[in-house]
Every structure is written in C-alpha cells, then in structure tokens.
Amino acid sequence: DIETTDEVAEAVTTQETEESVTTESEEQVPVTTDVGELNFTSDKTIDWPVNGEVILPYSMETTVYFKTLDQYQCNPGMLISAGSGTTVQNAYLGKVTNVTSDNEYGNMVTLYIGNDYSIVYGQLDTIYVKEGDYVKAGQSIGTIGNPTDSFQEEGSHLFFQMLEGETPVDPLLYIE
C-alpha cells in the first residue's frame, strides 16, 4: 500500500499540537508543545495551585515556627495544606526546567514562567511532567505526597515557592 500525496498532506495537517504523556498511574495528561513567549511580570497574577489553607507562610524577613523541627527559621516558600494524593494545578504558564528530589522538600518540579521568574512545587508524589515540557496554567503537574521527615507534624501539604532569579519572593503578592 502506497499512500497518496493527499493522504500524507492530510495526516500532516491534522497533527495535534499536544502530545499525551503516560504517567505511573496510566493517566493521560496533555502536555503543551507550543505556547509562545513566557512572559510573567511582577504586575501579573498567578492561580492557587491547590485548595487549602496556608499552614506556614513565606517569611524571609522574620522567622516562623516549624513544628516538626521545633525551631524558628526563615521560610523561602509557603506551605499549603493539601491531602496526600491531591492534584496540583500549575499556577502560571511555564516551562519545566527541573525535576528533582531532596530530603527536605521531597519530589520537586521547577517551572520557568518568564522574565527571570520561576515557580517551585515540592512535597509531590507522582509527577506528570518532565524537563522541557511547557505546562499551561491549570494543567496538572502532579499529586501531593506524604510529608518528608522535616514536615511530619505539619501534615500533607504543597511546598510552593516563587523565585525572582535565585531570590525567593512571597507568592501571596501574586496569587489571585
């Protein structure tokens, strides 16, 4: 069977701009491949990534009390209460620049959102995105995991951080 030129042209023109990624749970998550310019600026707003209360606020100017660690220290992000397994929605259009894990914040995803701003999501279990993916606001990036040893007393939550360059900034200044 040889395809005609018309059939090949039709197949090419009907290609979708999104591809599906299979996750550990076999859930299909659309990943955006063409999004235009990443253009976050300080006068724009971001969405809440999960529904929940802020259980530990951003605080780089003063210290806040960490129950599990039983000490006061600065907090470079905020902790938003959310049950294990809760889906985390991306807060602003961005490109995944890093998927890592550490002992303090667990599995983490970092998205570059433009003009030297990034968002970091931590305390994740399943991650639906990979480095290089473009993710629209509202798309699922993963699920909340069990808290790491550093945050057992705080319970399941999302670690949510915004960075301007390498400097943490208060996400509440931008959340709508």
Report on this model:
Strand 13 (157-164) and strand 14 (167-169) form a beta hairpin. This protein has one helix at 5-13, and strands spanning 18-22, 28-32, 54-56, 59-66, 71-75, 78-81, 87-89, 94-102, 106-114, 117-127, 134-135, 140-144, 157-164, 167-169. It is mainly beta. Mean pLDDT is 86; it is low at 1-29. Strands 3, 6, 7, 8, 9, 10, 11, 12, 13 and 14 form a ten-stranded antiparallel β-sheet that branches. Strands 1-2 form a two-stranded antiparallel ribbon. 5% of the residues lie in helices and 45% in strands.
Coarse morphology: globular
Terminal CA distance reads 56 Å
Strand percent estimate: over 45%
Q: Which structural class is indicated by helix and strand composition?
A: mainly beta
